[in-house]
């Protein structure tokens, strides 16, 4: 009916123009932000521990502690940056503001590599955990790698179609995972912890200096979820306050969990055992050791003398003994699947964000007409993740190589995040900083945060260790960066040529009008 | 029931027409303000502030149509377009922020697996909105 309506004479139609930049509805609070970040960081313990033990052996807890300190510095840097710029892009966004588009691109491209490896490595370790139910998934490299590739392909399809993922499942998986890891730590300390055995393991299996440094570099992969939280800042209510708080909460949680799980791990078995048959599913190994150490009747009798209480406690301990390995297998597979999916969503968002600022060809951010998803980015990056899993079919060290490649990408983006925050302190000292890092040193009338300086030096040093000691990561990582830079230079050159052409045409038409 | 602010959550379906008309009729008595809201749902694989031209074009059409319907009823409405991850929470948040007395939504008659289905947005708003909610279902035919 409204189509037939015509204004009468004297009618005045006032239409308020709708603003082109639509308001965004920010809904996330600290719990949602924490669970998203934890979903990423918490999942890394399921593979990071195995990779670190392979290299750092007995020094694993020490290496995790050193990397943990670097993680604290990095998380603090992200807190300042995200509070200033609550937008998708994380370190790429800080680098674009702190330096220029080119550094922003380098950081974003490195971050993309780290996302791709997150996808690959998370999918790669799902089959070993599910091997509890069907051993060939763990024992056969061919079956395991093929299943991992199938998982990535499946995740790619659901992301292209844009199947509605429920944040409820993500939050529930993160909460359950947190509880199970706490249960493992408590039970581990109760039934396995032996101080002398732990100290002997550390002393006897102390690694070489080279492996110790490489261990710190690899341990950095355990803490890379900090980027996820930063990426979600644009969806958070009052991001300037809530993101730093969620980051601090995650620092505390992750340090307690990683410290606890690694200590229990080395109390349960020697580093050689952990790095042997349990390298790809270390938490399953720890759960298995705890399960074997639980003696229900004996433990119940120690805790109580009443017959009824002993019966109930025996029943509880028997249940725990039988349930723990199953629980770890199911939960690890679920949270790693969530991490695979989160990695693909993260890289799609990042690609769109970089495309918007003309840092990569906008074709990568093209949205599907029907599904409303950035399908080209999803398909291309899934294909790259599938490609880097191919060595898994033949190379026994593929798992370690993936870990080192992960460290290459994430450490490079961390280095640039620290440098960008310091650059912003020099270039724009008066910019509002809702979360400003303390402990500053004065340099040419500018205040530079000590934690960012230490973080920059530390992350740059371990990144160099990866470059010099890991040929696979060196060549694949540098190759990835080189390909990216070539795409960037060609894209920017063509864009500039096009802009000049348009400007020339406009000048020409203006002159002819005169 | 005295109404000062009414929020119409438009979905782009035919049922919006009746909802906007009803909102204008209800608002006239107390000269209430009417807001027509359209939410663009952004998939998680895109940043929340992604500009999806096809969706914006569709939203503009829906809101312009709502303005036309209101003008036909000799009433003026305010329109708004927001981007969110989920439509239901966005409508409820908007209703709370604008302190509306009533949320009005058009319902399309549809069956899913042979059972009448309200979708996921309407049940969420019915459950979570702090104010009154009126549903205006279009005729079966």
What's the arrangement of secondary structure elements?
The complex is a heterodimer of chains A (514) and B (141).
Chain A: H1 30-56, H2 60-84, H3 91-98, H4 101-124, H5 126-130, H6 136-139, H7 141-161, H8 167-191, H9 195-204, H10 209-219, H11 226-231, H12 239-268, H13 271-275, H14 282-293, H15 296-303, H16 307-356, H17 375-389, H18 398-427, E1 440-443, E2 446-449, H19 450-469, H20 471-513
Chain B: E1 5-10, H1 15-30, E2 33-41, H2 53-72, E3 78-84, H3 87-97, E4 102-107, E5 111-112, E6 115-116, H4 121-128, E7 132-137
Parallel strand pairs in B: 1-2, 1-4, 2-3, 4-7
Antiparallel strand pairs in B: 5-6
Assigned CATH class of chain B:
Alpha Beta
Unreliable runs of chain A, pLDDT <50, ≥5 residues? Answer: 1-17
Order of helices and strands of chain A: HHHHHHHHHHHHHHHHHHEEHH
Radius of gyration over C-alpha positions of chain B, nearest whole angstrom: 15 Å
Q: Compute the separation of the termini of chain B in Å.
A: 32 Å
Second-tier CATH architecture of chain B: 3-Layer(aba) Sandwich
Helix/strand/pairing category of chain A: mainly alpha
* CATH class category name of chain A: Mainly Alpha
Largest interface, and how many residues on either side? Answer: A-B, 41 and 40 residues
Topology-level CATH name of chain B:
Rossmann fold
CATH superfamily of chain A: Amino acid/polyamine transporter I
CATH fold-level topology of chain A? Amino acid/polyamine transporter I
| Count of domain modules of chain A | 1
Tally of contiguous helical segments of chain B:
4
Count of distinct strands of chain B: 7
Query: How large a portion of the residues of chain A is in β-strands, by DSSP E?
Result: under 5%
Low-confidence runs of at least 5 consecutive residues of chain B: none
pLDDT average of chain A, as an integer?
83
Helix content of chain A: over 70%
């Amino acid at each position: 009916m409204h189509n037939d309506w015509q204004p009468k004479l004297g009618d005045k139609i006032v239409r308020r123009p709708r603003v082109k930049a639509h308001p965004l509805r920010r809904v996330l609070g600290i719990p949602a932000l924490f669970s998203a970040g934890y979903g990423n960081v918490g999942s890394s313990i399921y593979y990071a521990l195995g990779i670190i033990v392979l290299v750092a052996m007995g020094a694993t807890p020490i290496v995790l502690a050193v990397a943990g300190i670097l993680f604290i510095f990095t998380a603090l840097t992200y807190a300042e940056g995200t509070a200033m710029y609550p937008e998708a892009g994380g370190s790429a966004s800080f680098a674009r503001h702190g330096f220029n588009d080119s550094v922003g691109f380098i950081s974003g491209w490195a971050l993309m590599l780290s996302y791709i490896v997150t996808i690959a490595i998370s999918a790669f370790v799902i089959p070993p955990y599910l091997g509890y139910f069907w051993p060939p998934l763990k024992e056969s490299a061919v079956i395991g790698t093929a299943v991992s590739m199938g998982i990535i392909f499946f995740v790619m399809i659901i992301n292209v179609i844009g199947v509605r993922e429920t944040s409820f499942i993500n939050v529930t998986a993160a909460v359950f995972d947190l509880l199970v890891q706490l249960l493992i730590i408590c039970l581990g300390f109760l039934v396995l912890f032996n101080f002398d055995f732990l100290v002997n393991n550390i002393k006897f299996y102390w690694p070489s200096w080279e492996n110790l440094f490489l261990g710190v570099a690899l341990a950095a992969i355990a803490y890379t979820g900090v980027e996820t939280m930063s990426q979600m800042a644009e969806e958070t209510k009052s991001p300037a306050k809530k993101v730093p708080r969620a980051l601090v909460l995650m620092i505390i949680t992750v340090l307690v969990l990683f410290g606890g799980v690694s200590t229990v791990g080395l109390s349960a078995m020697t580093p050689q055992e952990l790095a042997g048959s349990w390298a790809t599913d270390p938490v399953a190994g720890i759960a298995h050791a705890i399960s074997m150490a639980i003696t229900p009747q004996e433990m119940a009798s120690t805790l109580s003398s009443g017959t009824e209480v002993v019966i109930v406690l025996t029943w509880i301990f028997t249940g725990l003994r039988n349930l723990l390995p199953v629980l770890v297998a199911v939960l690890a597979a679920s949270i790693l699947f969530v991490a695979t999916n989160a990695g693909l969503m993260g890289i799609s968002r990042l690609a769109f964000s970089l495309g918007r600022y003309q840092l990569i060809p906008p074709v990568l951010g093209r949205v599907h007409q029907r599904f409303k998803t950035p399908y080209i980015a999803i398909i291309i990056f899934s294909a790259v993740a599938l490609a880097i899993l191919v060595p898994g079919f033949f190379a026994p060290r593929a798992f370690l190589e993936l870990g080192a490649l992960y460290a290459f990408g994430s450490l490079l983006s961390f280095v640039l995040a620290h440098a960008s925050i310091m650059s912003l302190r020099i270039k724009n000292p008066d910019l509002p900083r809702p979360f400003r890092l303390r402990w500053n040193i004065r340099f040419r009338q500018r205040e530079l945060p000590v934690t960012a300086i230490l973080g920059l030096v530390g992350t740059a040093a371990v990144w160099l260790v990866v470059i010099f000691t890991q040929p696979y990561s060196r060549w694949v990582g540098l190759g990835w960066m080189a390909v990216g830079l070539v795409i960037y230079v060609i894209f920017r050159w063509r864009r500039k040529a096009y802009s000049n052409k348009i400007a020339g045409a406009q000048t020409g038409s203006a002159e002819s009008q005169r | 029931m005295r109404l000062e602010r009414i929020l119409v959550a438009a979905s782009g379906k035919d049922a919006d027409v009746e909802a906007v008309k009803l909102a204008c009729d209800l608002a006239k008595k107390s000269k209430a303000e009417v807001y027509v809201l359209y939410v663009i749902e952004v998939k998680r694989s895109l940043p929340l502030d992604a500009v999806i031209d096809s969706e914006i074009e569709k939203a503009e059409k829906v809101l312009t149509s709502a303005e036309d319907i209101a003008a036909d009823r000799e009433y003026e409405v305010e329109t708004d377009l927001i981007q969110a991850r989920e439509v239901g929470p966005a409508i409820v948040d908007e209703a709370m922020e604008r302190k509306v007395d009533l949320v009005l939504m058009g319902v399309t008659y549809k069956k899913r697996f042979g059972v009448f289905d309200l979708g996921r947005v309407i049940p969420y708003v019915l459950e979570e909105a702090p104010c009154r909610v009126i549903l205006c279902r279009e005729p079966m035919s």
